[in-house]
Amino acid sequence: MKSHILSNLAGSIRAQQEFAEASADRIVQLVQWTVATFRSGGKLLLFGNGGSAADAQHVAAEFVNRFKIDRHPLPAIALTTDSSVLTSIGNDFSFDLIFVKQIQALGKRGDLALGISTSGNSPNVLKAITTAREMGLRTAALTGGSTKPGGEIGAVADLVLNVPSDSTPHIQEAHLWVEHILCELVEKELFA
Q1: 149-163 per-position pLDDT tens digit
Q2: What gap in Å lies between CA 70 and CA 57, rounded to an integer?
Q3: Three-class SS of residue 179?
Q4: Looking at residue 27, which CATH number applies to its domain?
Q5: Which end of the chain, N or C, is less surrounded by CB atoms within 10 Å?
């Protein structure tokens, strides 16, 4: 078990290192877009499924409350949290539209839509990114995969940060790392 623990950790570190090296410029771009969104009175709309839904909620909480700096709240909304909205859209229309309809209701030009999909192929995230772009929102995606980097979402989002790994846990670990970097750098830019 000890060798498995150490091997798993090494794999996670390798995935994060490769991601950071390949995506540093795009991470800076995401920070700049997020700062510009908040400065112009826009909001950050986050969404994903499963662990990515938890990530969306985590990031929204960091921006609305605080990450490292006690400061004014920032407008970030996780589109994964309202069970009545999610289940009514899923029941009346389709699970594929649970984020689309919220983007249509809450999104406006000047906002930033950030979709999170480990595979890069989640249909509801793909449709929401497509809708957001059509409405004039900037769109970004956190994805994963080495065989088809970014998946279908990678071909649609304005900015794609893809973890070049096929290990779902390692992709998710790298997503959490970049989400924390995003929160930290946005706070520093706006409030340091």
Answers
A1: 899 999 999 999 999
A2: 19
A3: helix
A4: 3.40.50.10490
A5: N
